[in-house]
Amino acid sequence: MQNNPLVSIIMPAYNAQKFIAESIESIRKQSYSSWELIIADNNSNDNTAEIIKDYVQDDARIKYILADEKQGAAYARNTAINHANGDYIAFLDSDDLWFEDKLEKQIAFMQKNKIVLSYTTYQTF
Fold it and tell me: What crossing angle do the helices spanning 20-28 and 48-58 adopt, rounded to 10°?
């Protein structure tokens, strides 16, 4: 595996206009930069799509998929996974945030210990 493996970040979204920009920004601020973000919009009827499309135009690592119909978060996640190109898959919901060094620490830990699956704790706010 390469030194900076690609991480495919999977983000389902539905009517997420209130928080999705903050979630995307927490990814863009990562100290680890070898990632792609795949957002699967579960047919939102608010401004979620417009917010995502602005980011897509600004950052080639961000990809937008619109579901044909509302089918739920699991369907959206699976749809995004089918478009993933990464060596690793990471999940972040559209109303959650990551610390800036989350990916860097997690990928380094996984490579050092030769493991293929890990998870981290979380905080509520």
Answer: 20
Q: How many residues does the chain have?
A: 125
Q: Report the distance separating Cα 76 and Cα 65, nearest Å.
A: 9
Average pLDDT over residues 38-47: 96
pLDDT band at 81 (very low <50, low <70, confident <90, very high): very high
Q: Which residues contact 17 (CB under 8 A, 6 or more apart)?
A: 44, 46, 47, 48, 51
Mean pLDDT, residues 45-57 = 97
10 membership: H or E segment, kind and range: strand 7-13
CB atoms closer than 10 angstroms to residue 82 = 10
Tokens representing 108 are 């380094």
pLDDT of residue 93: 95
Residue 89 token pair: 């898959």
90's enclosing H/E stretch is strand 88-91
